[in-house]
From TrEMBL, chain A:
This is Ubiquinone biosynthesis protein COQ4 homolog, mitochondrial. Component of a multi-subunit COQ enzyme complex. GO terms for molecular function: 4-hydroxy-3-methoxy-5-polyprenylbenzoate decarboxylase activity; zinc ion binding. It comes from Plectus sambesii. Zn(2+) binds at H132, D133, H136, E148. It catalyses: a 4-hydroxy-3-methoxy-5-(all-trans-polyprenyl)benzoate + H(+) = a 2-methoxy-6-(all-trans-polyprenyl)phenol + CO2. The lineage of its organism: Eukaryota, Metazoa, Ecdysozoa, Nematoda, Chromadorea.
Automatic annotation (TrEMBL), chain B:
GO terms for molecular function: 2-methoxy-6-polyprenyl-1,4-benzoquinol methyltransferase activity. It comes from Plectus sambesii. Pathway: Cofactor biosynthesis; ubiquinone biosynthesis. Methyltransferase required for the conversion of 2-polyprenyl-6-methoxy-1,4-benzoquinol (DDMQH2) to 2-polyprenyl-3-methyl-6-methoxy-1,4-benzoquinol (DMQH2). GO terms for biological process: methylation. Component of a multi-subunit COQ enzyme complex, composed of at least COQ3, COQ4, COQ5, COQ6, COQ7 and COQ9. Interacts with PYURF; the interaction is direct, stabilizes COQ5 protein and associates PYURF with COQ enzyme complex. It comes from the Eukaryota. InterPro entries: SAM-dependent_MTases_sf, UbiE/COQ5_MeTrFase, UbiE/COQ5_MeTrFase_CS. It catalyses: a 2-methoxy-6-(all-trans-polyprenyl)benzene-1,4-diol + S-adenosyl-L-methionine = a 5-methoxy-2-methyl-3-(all-trans-polyprenyl)benzene-1,4-diol + S-adenosyl-L-homocysteine + H(+). This is 2-methoxy-6-polyprenyl-1,4-benzoquinol methylase, mitochondrial. Belongs to the class I-like SAM-binding methyltransferase superfamily. MenG/UbiE family. It is a peripheral membrane protein. S-adenosyl-L-methionine binds at T104, D129, D159, A160. The lineage of its organism: Eukaryota, Metazoa, Ecdysozoa, Nematoda, Chromadorea.
Length: 231, 287
């Protein structure tokens, strides 16, 4: 096995990755509150070709290149919540702060990446994990079952990460009949369009858009506003 | 930009896949060039003061899932080992018994039950552990068990290397799966000798070395591949269980440990392998 490539790295053999993938999947279903199990499942199923493709996509984009060079992190220290609270209503930063407060969570609540055996690809995974909340905010999807499934579909389409794809499929199956109906009639066609037409989210330099009004940011990212209840 | 990042990745790819073997042979202290005293924490070399702190962290973290993990890792066999251990100990009904590193009470409860089985017994069991979290779990388990006479159990937070008891105050001393975590094994055994009465017995149950090379290979694979994964999935703690499987390999061999027991003054020191040497029962007698 390789030696440690980054501080939180736990090098694992192929057998261990297999056991981890299976074990974490079962545990995540049995105990949904185990966020670390969802994280482990995501990491152990994110095989090298998938992450490599994401890395290459980022490297093709000017913003993505900057991200890969500078590797900014979204942590409790790098995000100034007070400053975000001071921003105008309707800005991306203000809405993100509102999102965090309503869930009583913080950027550090996301577990660090442990099982990616590559010093470059680990950043792709870490960036994905840390910007997941931004995806929620800019798509306008709440953390309800329906909202989470919709976000998973978006991520599955844009990133192709196995956990997002399978999460989207299984999540859909677990929706109640009314929500499933609404998903198929409204949310699914909408999110497919956003995933295909929208800018590649991993290349977006979110930290430069705190003061951008959400409506404007959506236009810049080629996104439609979220469907309303009546549509 | 793309070409250079791809080639950089290619270089990285090769570097990562160069297999760096994890050494399984214990590093000897004599090879350490450091001036101050070091010991081992699993496969890491640490300063002696550090080890106690790190071990404390491990057990503070694992306390809540300790029993579940024991069942999962040994597939329930640890219960068989402990039953046999107490059977060999042969507790007497009026003993003053000391169980060290007894944390969650597995040995203490078994000893107490044997004592209680004899009518009119006056025996008492003291459980000592350096970690209050483990003692808390033990006490909770005890109160939930109606078959145990609570008043015949004492729970003491203390250090096995410096026991808070008078000389010659116990008839028997047990330590099960605890001694390998202590910084100075020789001090622990010496303290055991001190607090035991004349005629008292010392019994230790601990992971040991598997002699058979084929079995050892299977055991090592299971230990290093499966155990930390179990720890991560069941207890959310990879590192504590990585420490566990490493610390087992750092502990002295069966015959070396038997000699340490003799050195402390015990007579008739001997050992018996369980499950091909996965663990062993060591004993010594204060004559």
């Amino acid at each position: 096995m390789a030696h440690r490539l980054y501080p939180t790295h736990i090098p694992t053999s192929p057998l261990q990755k297999l056991l981890l993938a299976g074990g974490s999947a079962l545990m995540a279903i049995a105990r949904p509150q185990r966020g670390d199990m969802v994280a482990t499942m995501g990491e152990t199923t994110a095989i090298r070709p998938v992450l490599q493709r994401l890395y290459d996509n980022m490297a093709r984009d000017e913003g993505g290149q900057r991200l890969l060079l500078e590797r900014p992190r979204i942590t409790n220290t790098s995000v100034d919540r007070k400053y975000l609270r001071s921003l105008e209503e309707g800005t991306f930063g203000r809405e993100y702060e509102r999102f965090l407060s309503s869930l009583e969570t913080s950027p550090d609540a996301r577990p660090p990446v442990q099982f990616i055996d590559d010093a470059d690809l680990v950043y792709v995974m870490q960036r994905y994990r840390e910007t997941h909340d931004f995806t929620h905010v800019v798509l306008g999807m709440p953390t309800t079952m329906l909202g989470e499934v919709t976000v998973k579909w978006f991520e599955g389409i844009q990133f192709g990460l196995p956990m997002c794809v399978s999460g989207g499929v299984f999540g859909t199956l677990r929706l109640g009949p009314k929500h499933r109906q609404r998903f198929f009639s409204t949310y699914m066609p909408w999110v497919i369009k956003q995933g295909v037409n929208g800018r590649f989210f991993l290349s977006v330099e979110w930290e430069k858009h705190w003061e951008t009004p959400l409506k404007q940011l959506r236009r810049q990212l080629n996104l439609d506003p979220p469907p309303t209840e009546n549509s | 930009m793309r070409a250079s990042s791809s080639s950089r990745l290619l270089l990285l790819h090769h570097a990562v896949n160069k297999r760096m073997p994890v050494s399984l042979t214990p590093r000897h202290l004599a090879q350490s060039p450091r001036f101050f005293a070091t010991t081992h924490f699993g496969f890491q070399d640490v300063e002696e003061g550090e080890k106690a702190k790190k071990v404390h962290e491990v057990f503070a973290n694992v306390a809540g899932r300790y029993d579940l993990m024991n069942d999962a890792m040994s597939m329930g066999i640890h219960r068989v080992w402990k039953n046999y251990f107490v059977h060999r100990l042969n507790p007497q009904p009026n003993w003053k018994h000391l169980d060290v590193a007894g944390g969650t009470g597995d040995i203490a409860f078994r000893v107490l039950r044997k004592m209680q089985a004899v009518k009119g017994s006056t025996g008492h069991v003291t459980v000592l552990d350096i970690n209050q979290n483990m003692l808390d779990v033990g006490q909770a388990r005890a109160t939930q068990d109606a078959t145990l006479s609570q008043e015949r159990l004492s729970w003491v937070c203390g250090d096995a290397e410096s026991l808070p008891f008078d000389d010659q105050s116990f008839d028997a001393y047990t330590i099960a799966f605890g001694i390998r975590n202590c910084t100075h094994v020789d001090k622990v055994v010496a303290e055991a000798y001190r607090v035991l009465k004349k005629g008292g017995r010392f019994f230790c149950l601990e992971f040991s070395q598997v002699k058979n090379p084929l079995l050892r290979m299977v055991y090592d694979q299971y230990s290093f591949q499966v155990i930390p994964v179990l720890g991560h999935v069941l207890a959310g703690d990879w590192h504590s269980y990585q420490y566990l499987v490493e610390s087992i390999r750092r502990f002295p061999r069966q015959d070396e440990f038997r000699d340490m027991i003799s050195t402390a003054g015990f007579q008739g020191s001997a050992y018996e392998n369980l499950t091909f040497g996965t663990c062993a029962v060591h004993c010594g007698f204060k004559r």
